[in-house]
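Q: What would this complex look like in 3D?
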Amino acid sequence: MTARILLPTPLRPYAAHQSSVEVEAATVGDALKALVERHRELRRHLYDEDGKLRRFVNVFKNEEDVRHLGREATPLAPGDTLSIVPSIAGGNGAGAPPRPGARRPPAWATGEDGLPPLSQADLLRYSRHLILPEVGLAGQRKIKAASVLIVGAGGLGSPLALYLAAAGIGRLGIVDFDRVDESNLQRQVLHGTSSVGRPKLESAKARLADLNPGVTVDTYGERLTSENAFEVMRPYDVVVDGTDNFPTRYLVNDACVLLGKPNVYGSIFRFEGQASVFDARVGPCYRCLYPDPPPPGLVPSCAEGGVLGVLPGVIGVIQAIETLKIILGVGETLVGRLVLFDALAMRFRELTLRKDPECPLCGTHRTVTKLIDYEEFCGLGPGSAAAHAEDGLEISARELAQKRERGDDFVLIDVREPQEFEIARIPGAILIPLNSLPERMSELDSSREIVLQCHVGQRSMRALEMLHRAGFRKLKNLRGGIEAWSRDVDPTVPRY
Amino acid sequence: MTLVMTVRESERIMAHLCRAYPEEGCGVLLGHDGAGAREVVGIIALENRREESRHNRYLIAPEQFLSADRTARAAGLDVIGFFHSHPDHPAKPSAFDLQHAWPYYSYMIVNVTRGTAGELRSFRLADDRSGFEEEKVELREVDRDRPGAADRLGAPGDRG
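A: Here is my prediction, written as structure tokens for the whole assembly.
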């Protein structure tokens, strides 16, 4: 009977490079013997020293393994095709049981080395991090082990919280006591329309839980103060400054220096932003850069001066990147460097910052060794804005309305910018933008009572102080500005 | 003797073998055996068919081989060798590997220590079965002008 034997590639060189050989045989065993008779070099590959077919040599008759038929005694019929099919085996030579621990899952899965373990779900979620050599399993576990405090859940806090949660920071703390206002939504992408009126912490927590349920979010619904700052900040590895006011910014800086923590700084105004990393252990602190706060009212807040909604995205994301670099210990952080971003020019500039040996907080002669009263430090304490109300220098929107109804003699000066005046104005107000007030003071009659007004009351307070220094005495500041007027007196005046 | 492959394929091999840890993992090398160097164009990761001692033994069953062979032919390639891991053991052929080796094929061995891939080496059986001869493994960057093996074999790619 003639049978055809198909040879796999590795055996062909030993059979005159043929892919098949025809032999006369009645059984499978005979056919193979006939094959190695004709091509003797094949023998050692098919048979072992004892003349037995090697275990990894499999013979199929047509489509079936002869082990399921009659093995080597399987009879052959005319036209049958035999195929020699390799099975491939091997393994390490030890032949010994696995060494102790080898069957144990690796440390990254158990966390036995002290860093938190990663789950299968973590591996999928962070796979784009894991394949970066600079992150990898070890780096992702550092991120998971890390805790970061974000001060402020506003413009900067939004991208910060979103990206840091997405990156897998194990514990995120957020400090904010504010509620979501419609005017926040233009830039504070952590919150949505459905959250208007709710505490920012509530909407932040819901959004972050959906984004990454693996992140623990601690919320602090209170103002950060000299009394609670240490307690709030102490549990965190890195503090990120997303504040919008100077007292809190100095407080965050001072507490970080005193606690020995890195402070990832960012600030925004109109079309420009700044970012740096202040770490007094290795570089300058915020006070080395700005030893004194600006006079109150000189630097308007975003509510006063406006801000391009996308700008905090750029600065907040720079802060988030710096935070991750600090945690991972990779790259060059912004320690000793201040990045200045100008969105209109679309330019980044960089200033070198040096540690100030005279810095009262981190210099050689330290005079600030504990947290102080930052409202007072920033000129907002007794004797300034807060005190003005008590001094009778402030007037509420309702009082102003009553004053009008009574027909009192006074002039209302709006110190905002023309484009704000265009959006909304209090009827009868005269526009004198704050920066043109010094040269236009002569237009004012010091014998008449002057009520100063701006958007929320900050710039007008500054104007009031300017006029007071110039000798004006019959002055009042509209508390809460046109915002309060619209809210409490005339809702037809648009709010912005 | 040289075995050429892309870094990408070597990483796919290592990834599969790390997943198999602490057991031995295995698979098939597909490619061309040209006049010059032998080239790996694709790989097929396989399940270790050993029923016991999988920490130090692997088995590619004949039906797995046949299936891989069909896949290779459909893509215009050949089975040119196999890869397997030595968990917590050096990447060199054991006596057991030698007993079970076929001529011609490239036997690639990767050391995997504590779940992390280490050395990758490749060997071919000497004609007289006396031992293995090491072949040089040359890793190349991905050739952008040619479709990747994964595309040719219809494997799911990373669209990230």
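A: To summarize the key features: DSSP finds 20 helices and 19 strands in chain A. Chain A touches chain B at residues 8-11, 13-14, 44-45, 54-56, 58, 60, 65, 85-99, 102-108, 128 (CB under 8 Å).
Q: Very helpful, thank you.
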